[in-house]
């Protein structure tokens, strides 16, 4: 996968008729949805039918299942993701016809042109922060357009066109896509080593974040996580460029300092300097930091901080971000997209806060945590096997699946066992290579009062309902 380089960005209205290859993906369908709302003619194809294709068809898109050069029709512009190979018949035909071919990020940049763009970047927390920001700005009356890497629990949407002049976008660093954007306000939550299959090393990751800072509009604002040393390096680069810089976090010098974090069921309360008490309906100290980033954006946009704070209280999460899936036999099941050691640590810590606070309120012993983890990508598993194992040590029991390879071919010796064998003593673990056996294993390990949490960026998300079914109807005997 090659890194994306910035280039010329045309306003969306100048793209003509737009055809999306793999229009059913979360990011592609969101961009298509906004284009349709703006009256742009859209068509698209995908390998399989889905609910998203149906929704786009209802909005006026011409959608096709499968891939065929004929599906291009009279398109002027073709939008692709990094995953689309040159051999795709529609892409090959577009090249032959000399059509304009844009990467997904360039299409999103076209939609952001002419708006007050807010781009949220960082190794962790992008989706939740962008989602929180969208809900808070809606509550504060800004009614932004938005494009998020996940879906809001309240609406089921990951993108939509608003009536205001603000455009909120999740900025993906994994392939350099965020270098296509020229935001008025940029957020950098944190910068850690990840996507090393694309980058030569951590130094290149940092170099790209530095380039992202350079993309901020002159006179714009950079918002950086004060608890992360590399994010603070980026803040200094922003100051050198003459940008307004706001920092947030628990660090003593943060402009918006978080203090007094207290879990409250599946939520929390805490103080933010200059704002007062903030209440959230989603768990975790990391979400308190995400909320502080949102308050910083609100300040940069000149919005009433009380209105932004009240909007945060209305936020109920993004899908696959510690999303409750149900309860059976006294066991609660949650689902998380966490696929990096830092993300596992944050979500398991938040879950520990939840079971501890719940026990204190009920006067009983805290429930146990059963983590069901599916490593994502062979390269990431190889890079971070020890760190994944250490993070899973925060659970009481862990079920480790085999690697979800996604775009990568298997690597000899790189399996889920590589992670499982690095889980520290004190945490019970099982490596289950056969995915079909995982629900029964998780249900067997869980007891009334426990929490089961499925973790990973692959198809582990589908196991929650199966685990609940197993819990509700255990096998006889």
Give the tags.
globular; alpha/beta; 21 strands; single chain; UDP-N-acetylmuramoyl-L-alanine:D-glutamate ligase; Rossmann fold; 477 residues
Explained architecture:
There is one protein chain. Helix 13 packs across helix 14. A ten-stranded mixed beta sheet has the order 8-7-9-6-10-11-12-13-14-15, with helices on both faces. Strands 16-17-21-18-19-20 form a six-stranded mixed beta sheet, with helices on both faces. Strands 3-2-1-4-5 form a five-stranded parallel beta sheet, with helices on both faces. By secondary structure, it is α/β, with parallel strands linked by helices. It has helices at 26-37, 51-58, 89-97, 104-112, 126-139, 202-215, 229-240, 285-301, 305-314, 341-362, 378-392, 416-420, 438-445, 463-472; strands spanning 18-21, 42-46, 62-65, 77-80, 100-103, 116-121, 145-147, 159-160, 166-170, 185-188, 221-225, 244-249, 256-264, 267-272, 276-280, 323-328, 331-336, 369-373, 397-400, 428-431, 451-455. The protein is built from 14 helices and 21 strands. The chain is globular and about 65 Å long. The protein folds into three domains: 12-103, 3-Layer(aba) Sandwich (Rossmann fold); 114-314, Mur-like, catalytic domain (UDP-N-acetylmuramoyl-L-alanine:D-glutamate ligase), CATH 3.40.1190.10; 323-472, Protein-Tyrosine Phosphatase, Chain A (Alpha-Beta Complex), CATH 3.90.190.20. The N and C termini lie far apart (51 Å).
Furnish the topology, listing elements before pairings.
Layout: E1 18-21, H1 26-37, E2 42-46, H2 51-58, E3 62-65, E4 77-80, H3 89-97, E5 100-103, H4 104-112, E6 116-121, H5 126-139, E7 145-147, E8 159-160, E9 166-170, E10 185-188, H6 202-215, E11 221-225, H7 229-240, E12 244-249, E13 256-264, E14 267-272, E15 276-280, H8 285-301, H9 305-314, E16 323-328, E17 331-336, H10 341-362, E18 369-373, H11 378-392, E19 397-400, H12 416-420, E20 428-431, H13 438-445, E21 451-455, H14 463-472
Parallel strand pairs: 1-2, 1-4, 2-3, 4-5, 6-9, 6-10, 7-9, 10-11, 11-12, 12-13, 17-21, 18-19, 18-21, 19-20
Antiparallel strand pairs: 7-8, 13-14, 14-15, 16-17
